[in-house]
TrEMBL record:
Gene: rocF
Taxonomic source organism: Azospira restricta
Keywords: Arginine metabolism, Hydrolase, Manganese, Metal-binding
Any one GO CC term of the record: cytoplasm
Protein name: Arginase
UniProt GO BP: arginine metabolic process
Length: 306
């Protein structure tokens, strides 16, 4: 059985809407631990990392709650790195997407030390490539990708011990459909590979994933950062930043199934679930359903590749 570790990060410190701090509990209520165990994992529940409360303050110099965001991400970085060193697959459940700074910087450090090639799938409605100069809100959950690529305050970009924590060519963004004007230009300048919803509409989810996963081999560590607002809000209303026109249930399932087929999944984020905005925990239950597919649930024992 593959060892996996669930690490909770119950905070909405980087978000503009309160409530994502309740996400880890909602995912557990929806059966996340049992679901991962059901598909061949020896699951350890590490409990929650601790950090400061959300002070609800306005942005200062382009950042809201920078000091608190740094504290949460440092704690999470240490927790994720410890599980990787122990040979386990960390599953970070948030919490808002600023937490990916801590989790992915830990994964990147581990990959450097082990000589692994890192590939990141960023499943999200948003590119999260803002900076203090570009952001319209100061919310740091809109900045984790740029921060990981080295464009951010020293306290955050140095968390993983190497600046930048990742290179732009290590990340593939899928499902993007809401990007701020300055962010669009910056994405193009830096060279982030983005498969937006128009691209998915034109070529389909299968071709999109084939391209996003191309070039991986046995030395690849695949990290999936799954923001629940990746999904269309018709099926996943429990997020604070809904954007219409996202992947359908079947498109999302195909995405997860194709990731599972690679056998390369090494770490996972599940973020931005907001139970305060959900209907009878349906978004949490859907997220757990998709995670099951990510760990190998399938309708049939497939005899061929189409």
């Amino acid at each position: 059985m593959r060892p996996a570790s669930i690490i909770g990060a119950p905070t909405d410190i980087g978000a503009g809407t309160r409530g994502a701090s309740m996400g880890p509990e909602a995912l557990c209520v929806a059966g996340l631990v049992e679901a991962v165990a059901r598909y061949g994992c020896d699951v350890k529940d590490c409990g929650n990392v601790a950090g400061p409360a959300n002070p609800g303050l306005p942005a200062v110099d382009g950042f809201r709650h920078l000091r608190e965001v740094v504290q949460w991400n440092r704690a999470l970085n240490a927790a994720v790195y410890a599980e990787l060193v122990d040979g386990r697959l960390p599953i970070m459940i948030g919490g808002d997407h600023c937490l990916a700074i801590g989790s992915i910087s830990a994964v990147a450090r581990h990959c450097r030390e082990q000589g692994k090639t890192l590939r990141i799938l960023w499943l999200d409605a948003h590119a999260d490539f803002n900076t203090a100069a570009l952001t319209p809100t100061g919310n740091i959950h809109g900045m984790p990708v740029s921060t990981l690529c080295g464009y951010g305050p020293r306290e955050l970009v140095e968390i993983g011990g190497c600046v930048p924590a990742i290179r732009p060519d290590q990340i593939r963004q899928i499902g993007i459909r809401s990007v701020d004007e300055g962010e669009k230009r910056f994405l193009r300048e830096v060279g982030i590979e983005v498969f937006d919803m128009r691209y998915i509409d034109e070529v389909g989810m299968r071709r999109t994933l084939e391209l996003a996963l191309a070039g991986m081999d046995e030395s690849t560590h695949l990290h999936v950062s799954f923001d629940v607002d990746f999904l269309d809000p018709e099926i996943a209303p429990g997020v604070g930043t809904t954007v219409r026109g996202g992947p359908t249930y079947r498109e999302a399932q195909l995405c997860m199934e194709m990731v599972a087929d690679t056998g390369r999944l090494g770490s996972l984020d599940i973020v931005e679930l907001n139970p305060a905005l959900d209907h009878r925990n349906m978004t949490a239950e859907l997220a757990v359903d998709l995670v099951e597919s990510l760990f190998g649930k399938s309708t049939l024992l497939r005899m061929y590749q189409p």
